[in-house]
Every structure is written in structure tokens, then in C-alpha cells.
Amino acid sequence: MATLHPETLDRLRGVSTATITTQLFKRGLRNTWMRGVRPLAASGVTLVGPAFTLRTIPAREDLDRLETLADPEHPQRKAIEVTPPGHVLVIDCRGVTDAAAAGDILVTRLARRGVAGLVCDGALRDAGPIAAMGFAAFCAGPAAPLSLCGHHAVALQEPIACGGVAVFPGDIIVGDADGVVVIPADLADAVAADGAEQEALERFVLGRIEAGAALRGTYPPDATVKAEFAAWRARGER
Amino acid sequence: MATLHPETLDRLRGVSTATITTQLFKRGLRNTWMRGVRPLAASGVTLVGPAFTLRTIPAREDLDRLETLADPEHPQRKAIEVTPPGHVLVIDCRGVTDAAAAGDILVTRLARRGVAGLVCDGALRDAGPIAAMGFAAFCAGPAAPLSLCGHHAVALQEPIACGGVAVFPGDIIVGDADGVVVIPADLADAVAADGAEQEALERFVLGRIEAGAALRGTYPPDATVKAEFAAWRARGER
Amino acid sequence: MATLHPETLDRLRGVSTATITTQLFKRGLRNTWMRGVRPLAASGVTLVGPAFTLRTIPAREDLDRLETLADPEHPQRKAIEVTPPGHVLVIDCRGVTDAAAAGDILVTRLARRGVAGLVCDGALRDAGPIAAMGFAAFCAGPAAPLSLCGHHAVALQEPIACGGVAVFPGDIIVGDADGVVVIPADLADAVAADGAEQEALERFVLGRIEAGAALRGTYPPDATVKAEFAAWRARGER
Amino acid sequence: MATLHPETLDRLRGVSTATITTQLFKRGLRNTWMRGVRPLAASGVTLVGPAFTLRTIPAREDLDRLETLADPEHPQRKAIEVTPPGHVLVIDCRGVTDAAAAGDILVTRLARRGVAGLVCDGALRDAGPIAAMGFAAFCAGPAAPLSLCGHHAVALQEPIACGGVAVFPGDIIVGDADGVVVIPADLADAVAADGAEQEALERFVLGRIEAGAALRGTYPPDATVKAEFAAWRARGER
Amino acid sequence: MATLHPETLDRLRGVSTATITTQLFKRGLRNTWMRGVRPLAASGVTLVGPAFTLRTIPAREDLDRLETLADPEHPQRKAIEVTPPGHVLVIDCRGVTDAAAAGDILVTRLARRGVAGLVCDGALRDAGPIAAMGFAAFCAGPAAPLSLCGHHAVALQEPIACGGVAVFPGDIIVGDADGVVVIPADLADAVAADGAEQEALERFVLGRIEAGAALRGTYPPDATVKAEFAAWRARGER
Amino acid sequence: MATLHPETLDRLRGVSTATITTQLFKRGLRNTWMRGVRPLAASGVTLVGPAFTLRTIPAREDLDRLETLADPEHPQRKAIEVTPPGHVLVIDCRGVTDAAAAGDILVTRLARRGVAGLVCDGALRDAGPIAAMGFAAFCAGPAAPLSLCGHHAVALQEPIACGGVAVFPGDIIVGDADGVVVIPADLADAVAADGAEQEALERFVLGRIEAGAALRGTYPPDATVKAEFAAWRARGER
Can the peptide bond before residue B39 be classed as cis, meaning omega within 30 degrees of 0? Predict the structure, then answer.
């Protein structure tokens, strides 16, 4: 896994997923946003961290019985215990939304262990308690049925699909009200640096628009506005 | 219809839909949660009661005219007046979400009559006022169009489909933030009793996890933790 | 474009989208509600105004590059600047929900220019800031990716499709918690007048239902209840 | 059920489903064609007959076991034995396509009993043998799983939904390569008579078009072409 | 519109849609294949020609009546008469598959006029007769209902969406058993030339694979195999 | 991997996928049929063999370039060369149908190597030539775009999802006109033996039904019919 610049994760905390898609678009990547994955809580949770992945396949009735969950090596249970603090557990649920990937006890354990968040393209159960916890959970919505109704967990730390996007272990996951984007690990430093700068420019532009400026010349900025932005930046504004 | 244990409905008020799916899974039932049906209000309404059913088919332009709604025997209007207090009106909308199954006047009448809730796999109109009423309404979302645009109501108290689940009159309907589950009437007593016990165990387990316990041995609980739970229960904790 | 009665837009501010679909149904129009389009903000924004339309087709990688957005004649950017105050910008996104039709800077400009609202059957980015603005934005949900990932804007003020409904420039757009309906311009005066009357009747009926009246004779009202409503109206109630 | 004109079914054998939708459109009915239902066989089977209906709901694991099929009163098995000769068995499968409504043994029995055809908005199994039989089977495609995996048959001769269209027992079902349409029983005589006349006109028009005529004046025909058609008809052409 | 090299259309008749997507991929275009659009006839019709476009929006009950089809300026009818011989009529049906874009009389007129083919992301009616004609018709499948049930034709020769792909008038349309691809007009000469060469290489490679060669070095070809191909080409093989 | 009884694969060649789902249903497995996967060729290809699996995730523009296909270790290319003769290559395409999993050159190589068949829940390109080859290819339909447009191949011989069903390497894959079913390896011997017996019984029953027997007592067979079947079997009929 690539070693990140020490400020990259912090910088990304100030960059929106919208801005990140623009930065990735400039680098030739268009398919970076997970379809159908949104924050579970209505309030504005944000999420930044490296991906730790769990892969599932469809449940099989003879294999996926309640007894199997007692095995500490069961990949779903193991994922909860071994996702490193500060990382994001990303679960490939194959877009299946009628069985839960996890519930409040597992999410509580993740939170207690210092894991940064949970992302899946499936459902979570105990959605009420989880939303109230303030933990950064992103999913396709709530569903009551236990995971064994739909999912057979198979492996940790493999490349997976989530919401139609490729996720490799160590990719940087960022989530906000617009959903979740995946930054390939080797692009994260550049996206963080350029994204932070883009955010500053957009704040400057937004101030102009709020003050009544027309789009022309302002958004995107022409040379004059860029110079004014540079001066504003030089004055230490942000 | 089976006669319920007198405490069953009360017990179920303390059992989550997530727990109920686990109890039904233990009894061989996997398909018990309605797909695409969620609480209309953002806040945490819960619902418990026996199902009273209404079945619809697609509207036909020559049959479904405004005049027909004046007939007190029209099945939709009749359902509003005859669903027994404490019961849940469950409407089979065939998953059609671009016409409403009911609006605020009908829902107000249901609430006034003491009906416990309304569940449909279609839409409701006047979603703003209904959400503000605090009535337990679960549906696939709001839609403005009147029911005649999409639905022809045909019969009361037949077995129906709702959200991909079989619903027989008298089945016990439970709804919360995770959606709606259907408990076959003859399983309701056992699911309520065992479900209440499972809830107690999960509260106990959650306390341990919040206190820093690892999943191993705690969730699912091994013999030691089960014994500690039994002692905790014996002390009257819950 | 038809000239509206001077009170039509004001009257429509007091008429729900649910009532409007009933009025249009009486006039033979059933397909008037946009599928999949809902208010971006959780709180109760409402919207009334004539449609100003923007049409898009799928993006093409060689045409839809960041540089093209600097062209003030780019139809998306131009739409933001020329939608008349009080009008509603309606964007045909072909139901594509994985690229945004606009973001917070463009929406801020619309709001600053006095545009009444924005409606699209696609996504918006910067959903958190937009929802906080109080601007009447209706869409299929949030999405982070920039418009160039999915949309190539082609023309203003053409007849378009939005949410499965025909929208002609000048049609009257009304939005509330039940979504968005389209009133053909030449029907707007009649729908507004009759709709306002229907709203008064429904308020009267709702009062009766809240007071315990059964549906029979009250909803729909029989001759007696209609006479009572007329007397109530004559007393200046509303 | 309405009594049909003695020539109605024969007339309909010469009328395409396309023409029938036009005749029903003239009478105010737009929603008459089943979505997703097509002939199982590649070759050109056609179908005309009154509907005999079977309704299903989702399977329930404790009720839908292999043993239940031995009960001659099981509605699916009973439907096979009691659908009258010349009628069409129409099964409401709720659009579920991953379990079969019937297989080759049941279809063979239907054919042996002189039933005109089978229509469902679900799947059939043993699709190879059934397609080879020449029996008029229309469905959403093949699927191997037995009906008990998905369907619980509940009742015969109720109004049902099939492919998004209302079907009342006795409605006239017509199927060809364009799929299946439903003619309300009380409109069947008129649709058959006018539809046969429309077919004659379209054959006449098609001859003109094949001979090089432009659409203008020919399709739809103006007064001159109508008079020529009348003369052609008067000469006994068809 | 760009002027094509005189051999481009002929060359494209020998290039598969699969090969064309590879050529366009090399030039940075990934979204060039229409989703859900396939040949109506089972046998192997192919299609090459410049696009002539027709755009539709959803039908409106008060505008889309049978009488309107008598107007020779009605865009659907006009499209049939003015699409130039050798061109392909491409209709934007917004993916709506429950109403037909055209039927056998209109298609017969297209064929009689020498139009190369018809492509739409909606349905065709009279599918049996059209499939038997041998005309190159590509669509999402058959549907009986007349166009007025779903479509309001609005304009000719505008840029449109079809099957999720942008189509500009004059773009080159190619169809075969794998469906339909769109070649931007200014890339058509290069794609035709390079595509023809790729086809020759693939025929050569296929011969090697049929003779037992492994993929390694053969597909894709290494320098040795490329040299052998060049020699084979130089001998006039193809 | 379990060792199969030496006659199991041969026996399964005489057992339909429909019968296999019944045998698996008897053993508690309901989810065994791949959704959306059908034979590419119209004629009746059948398929039996152990699964060899290939897993894909969504393509990433910077990783999935034409050059990468020259690497003989590329998992897609490697799968073609190492799937053992007599086995079935099963590709997890995540249900993505707008890029091809393979084309005619790769399929020719599979056929040349004696591989029994190819199954994927995605698309194949060069569908015309592949259908003409007589190779047992099952997929979700044709699509022209190359695999790099949609798929990044990651690994061989992992457990995968295909058409919503779990597939473990070595599971037995059976395909016919009803689609594809997956038999867990350790159940294959029993399913083959009991399935062959069920097929014999169904042939016997079908003969009775063709001769005019009613379902009652015949299907399912009662004790008398079972005895007659046993006698028929004892006479060596099949």
C-alpha cells in the first residue's frame, strides 16, 4: 500500500466528495462514486479513511446458519475485530438490500475500536440506534433481516466492488451528504492537495456569487478573478 | 384466526423488527420483511397489531372514476371504516408507487377510529400532513396522484402480497425504523416471548460491548457470558 | 405562452400537488406527477412557477471536458443566467442519477437572481449546503459527480421529459412534500380556481373527520354536507 | 359475465393485438397491454379466449411444501383441471420471474383438456418442451425453480393483476407476437367488429404503401382513400 | 455534418459493432453502445448508415389523440417521409417500452423509400410482420400499444439520447447481433479504416486459435505473430 | 473438492434444471438458479460440469487499458487457458450487462481446449458467431463493448456470486433452456441419482397425462400410480 503524505487525510476532511470527483475526473477517472450508498443518519456525518474490505457472496441455506456466527474466524465477525482504527470497513454486498450487513452491536464494537466508519452497498439493521450513535455509517438503507438471510461472508482485504466502483484495500474512502467516493491510494496525496485548493477557490467564488456576481468570468474564474483569488489567498483568507 | 396470548402484542412493542426476523429465521422463515416499505415520518414511529387486508389491482379508466368513491361499499373507503381498532390496515399496492393508496383525510379517519397503523407497498399522498400526525404510516414514499390513477380496490380480508411478503388477515404486523415484518399468527406468541428474551440478552451484550468487550465469546455469548446474563436477569435487570 | 390570470400563481401557493392531480384527472390528464423527484430538503419547501426548460443528452468524453464550462453560451451555464425571476428551471436529466445536474454555486446564483426553484429528474451535488439554503430544489437525490460525467446540455426552452411527464416551456410547476406536478399552461387558471375551492372543501371535511364523522356522506360530501360547506364558506370560513 | 356475440372470438382471431389497443384507446382505455409478457415459443402462436384467473401471493416456507401439491384442492392444481376448454388460464405471478408458475406436465394437461392458452407475468419451467408443444403459452420467460420457491396459490376466478393490467374473469385475452392484451368483456363485441374492419383497412393501406404511396392521405386515409377502400370492400376484397 | 470518405460506409459493413467499440475505446470513447437495443428479427440483420433523428417526450392525453396523426407535419409521420434514403431513423423513446414507436405500415414506407434502418430505445408493434420483412429494425422489443399511449413526437434532427448514448444527426450508426453503436461523424473514417484492419487481424488470429494456438503471443499478437499477419496480408489474404 | 461418483456427471446430462431445483428444494436449498442467465443460442444447448471461477470488479480507467491484455497472467486471459477440460468457466460479472465478459476468439479457445461451457451473469460479444459455434454459452445477452469498459478481472478459483447464487469452485453447473443451476459439490451425487429417478417418474407421468389422465393421483402420484411406475421401471422402461 502506498504511504500517504502525513497531511493527506486531514486535508481530505476539508474537501467535499463533489470536489474529489472533479479532481479524479481531471485525472481520467469517471467512475468513482458509489451508486445507491448514502449516510444512514440525516445529520451531516463525514468520513475519511483507508479502506479495509470484506467480501460477501449470496447466502446458502446449508452453510449460513446461526451457529456459524460463533466462529471467531467467521469473516464478518473477524472484520469487526481486525479493521484497524482510523480505517473504513467497506463491505461488498452486491447491491443486495433485503438483508443487513451488520447491526447495532457490531457497529458499536467498530466505534469502540476507533474504526472511522462503515460503508456498504447493502443494508444495515437497527438503523434507529445506529443513526443515533453518530458513527459514520453509509449504506443503501435500513433492513431488518439478519445477514445470514442474504450474505455469506468470504474474505477480508481483497479488491471488491461496492456501489459499482472498484475498491482496493488501502484506497481512500471519503463520505459526506453527497455519498461516498473512492480515491485510488496512489492518487490520494495529489487529490487532497489540489482538492483543498479547489475548495478554497470555490469558497471565494461562492462569496462573489452571493454578492451578486454573474457566472461569466467568475465560475469558472477567468484570469482576473484568478488573480483576485490569488491575492485573497495571499492575504491568508480561506 | 389464532387467539393470541394476552401479553403477545405488548411484548412485541419491546421487540425490534431485526430481532423478529432472527426469531422467524430460527423457525425456518426467511422472507418476512417487506421490501421498499419504510416509515413515512422521519421520527421513530413503531407499530404492532394484527393485519386487516385490502387488495387492489390496476385501475381501469372506465371503472375508476371519481363518482365511484361516493359508494360506501367501495372497498378502499369501506376498509377505512371497518378495520378494527388496534389493527393494522395493510394494502397490497403491487409495488406501484406513482399513485397514492390514501391521503390525509382517510388517514385521519383511521387514526380517529383507533386503528393502529397503515402499511402499504405503494405511496401515500399528503405526506407532509400525515407525517406530522404521528400516526404509524409505513409506505414506499409520497406520491401526489389520487388512487384512481393507479389502483382499483377489489376486496377486504383476503391473503395478499405486500412488499414481496405473504400477509394473511390476522398475521401480526410489526414496524419500526428498519421497516415492517410479518409474523404468521400461529407463531406470534412464541416469537414475542423468545424475542423479548433475545432483546434482554442483546441489551446485556451491548452493555458489555460498550464497555470494551470483544465479540469473541460475547456475541454470540458463550457459556460464561450466558451464565452472567442469567445472573443479571435473575437480579431483575432488563 | 398563455397569459395567466393574475391570481393564478398565488392561488396555487395554497393548493397541494395532491389536489392538483385530482383537478387534472377531472380534465382527463392522468400523467402529471414526476416519478422519482422529491424535495432535497427534509423541511417543507413548496414551489410554484412557470417552467423554463433545459435539455440534456448523455455526455460524450470528447465533447464534455472541463474547459467547455467556461463558454458562457454553454447551455447549462446559460440556463442559470437566463431563467427569468419567478420561474422554475426544469432540467431533463433522462432519469440519470449518478451525475449531478448542478451544485451549490449554480444554485446560489439561481437563488440570487430570484428564480423560484430548480427541478430535475437527476441528481444535485453539494446536497448538504443546498438543503441548508432553503431554496426550492427538487431532484432524485444527491450525487457527487460533476455534470460532465453524465450530461451534455443541448438546448433551452424546448419541450422536455422530466420524471416521465411532458413539460412545455411555460407550463406551471408546483412542488411540495408529495413531489412535483406539471399543469399545462392553458389549464392553469381553471386548476388554480377549482383547486383552491377543493382545498377549502377538504379543510372543512377534515374538520368533520377530526370531530368524529364517518366517511359516508362526508367524504365525498353528499348534498347535506355540501350545503353545510356552502354555509360555512358563506360565513367567511376557509 | 357478458354473453358474447357468437362471432366475436372468431373475429378476434383475425385482429392483431396492435389493432386491439387502438380500438380500446378510442374507447378511453390506455392500459390494456401486459408488460413483460411474451410468447414462449419463437414461432407465431396466437391466442384468443376468455380469462379464467388464478391468484398467487409470495410463498411461505412453512406452508409451501411439496406435500401440499398432492391436495386436489390446491388452487394451482385445481386451476389446471377446471379452466374450461377454450378459455385462457391467466395467472397473477406479481411479476416474479425466478420461480415457475407451471411446467410441462401441467401445460400438457391444459392442452389435453382443450384449454386455449396460458398467460402469466411470471416464468414457466420446462420451457424447451413447452415451446415444442405448440401450445399458446405467454410468460415473462423461462425459470427452472418450482412454483413453491416463489408462489403460494390462493384463489380462482378473482379479479387479478397481470403484467400491470387488470384482468376480470371473462375478460377476453388476445395474444400474438406483440404480447397480450385484455379486452373488458363488455367491450369485446364492439372491439372485435371494429377491429376486423380496421384490419381490412390496414391491409388495403399496406398494399398502397407497398405500391409506393406516401403516408399523406393514405395513412391515416383521407376521404378519397376511404372511398376507394369502401369500393374495394364492396368488391369483396379483404 | 462532416463529409465521409467515400469508402467509409462500405468498410463499416465489414466491421462488427464489437470491433467498433474497441476502436472508439482507443480514442477515449467508452459510452458508445445502446443499452437494451437489439435486432427485432432473430436472423442476422446488419445496419450501417448516418443517423436521422426524431425526438419524443411523454404523451399528454389532451394533445395526443388519433386525429393528430392525420397532420402531415406530425413529427413522427414526417420523419418517415423525410429520412433520406440510406440513412437510419433513430428515435429517442426515453427507454419507454410499453408503447410502440412505429408499426408495420410506417416501417414498410421506410423500407420502400430506401431508408437503411430504424433504431429506437423503445418498442415496435406488428413485430411479427416487421421481423419477416428483413428490414433492419433495432429496438427494445415488441409492444402492441400505439405510439400515442406513450410518446409525443416533438422534433427532427436534434441531438438525442438513445439507449443511454448521445446521437447527433449525421453520426454513423452500425448494428448487428451485438446491438447498435454510434460513431461520432468526425471519427467515422478513422474507425472504418482501422476497424477493417482489426477485423482482418482478428480473422487471422481466429484461424490460429482454431488451429490450436494458445492465447499467449497470439491474442493480443506479439511481434512474431504481427509479422506473420503482415506477411499473410501481403499475400492478399483477408 | 469432493470426489464425485463416476456416473454423476453422466446422470446429470439426463436431468433437467427444473428437476434439479426440486431435488435441491427437498434438501433445503431454494436459491440455486441464476437470475437473468440464459443460453446464448436459440437451439437447445445443454451443459454439465464442475465450476472453475473467475471474479471481476468494476473497471478502473487507469488500470484497464488495452495493453494489460497482453499479460498472460491477466486473470481473464489466464482463465481461458487454465480452466480444465470438461469444466465450466463461471464468471462473476456483478450483473453488469453493458460490457462483454468475452468474445468469439476467447470462446473459440475455450472450445478448442475442451472446456464444457461458459456461464456469466454479464454479456458476451460476437454473439452471432458464438451462437453459431454450438458451444454451451450462457449469459445475460449480447453486448458489443470490450470487457475493459466494465470489468477488471481479479482472481481465479474464489467463491463468487453469479446471477444471485453462490458458486464455489467445484460446484456442479447444469444448464439448459430453463437457465443454469448450481449444485453444491457434496450434494451432486445424491441429486444426480434422485434426479435421474425423478426424470423417469416424470416421463411415466407425462405419458399418462398425454393419454388423458387427470392430475389427481397421477401428479403427484398416489400409491397406485407409484406401484404402476415401479412395475414399468421393473420392465426396463425409462
Answer: no
Are the C-beta atoms of E109 and D215 separated by less than 8 Å? Answer: yes
CA–CA min distance B40, chain C (Å):
11
Residue C18 lies in a domain: no
> Does residue B91 carry a pLDDT above 90?
yes
Q: Which tens digit of pLDDT belongs to each residue from F167-190?
A: 999 999 999 999 999 999 999 999
Please give the grid coordinates belonging to residue D163. Answer: 403484467
Residue C114 sits in the same domain as residue C208: no
On whether any CB of chain F is under 8 Å from the CB of A184, the answer is: yes
Give residue-wise pLDDT tens across range A138-158: 999 999 999 999 999 999 999
Is residue D80 within 8 angstroms of chain E, CB to CB?
A: no
What confidence tier does D2 reach under pLDDT thresholds 50, 70, 90?
Answer: low
Are D178 and E125 inside 8 Å of each other by CB?
yes
CA dist., res. B124 & res. B143, Å (int): 6
Count of beta carbons in the 10 Å neighbourhood of residue E36: 18
Name the closest residue on chain B to residue D186, using Cα atoms. Answer: B62
Give A202's contacts in chain C (Cβ within 8 Å).
105
**Interatomic CA distance for residues E216 and E200, integer angstroms:** 19
F–E contact: 3+ Cβ pairs < 8 A: yes
Q: What is the pLDDT of residue A72?
A: 87
Q: What was the ipTM of the complex prediction?
A: 0.96
Helix (H) or strand (E) segment spanning residue E79: helix E75-82
Mean pLDDT of F141-168: 98
- pLDDT tens sequence across A166-195: 999 999 999 999 999 999 999 999 999 999
Q: Does residue F177 belong to the interface with chain D, where contact is any CB pair within 8 Å?
A: yes
Are both A173 and A207 inside the same structural domain? no
Q: Domain total for chain C?
A: 2
Under 8 Å between Cβ of B12 and B172: yes
Q: Which of residues 139-168 of E touch D (CB under 8 A)?
A: 141-146, 148-149
Q: Please check whether residues B197 and B85 belong to one and the same domain.
A: no
The reply to whether C124 and C171 lie within a common domain is yes
**Residue E110 belongs to some domain of the structure:** yes
On whether any CB of chain A is under 8 Å from the CB of B115, the answer is no
Name the pTM for this structure: 0.98
Q: Which residue of F has its CA nearest to E181?
A: F144
Chains C, F in contact, 3 or more Cβ pairs below 8 Å? no
With touching defined as 3+ CB pairs under 8 A, do chains D and A touch? no
Range of the domain at B195: 191-234
C-alpha cell at B175: 414496524
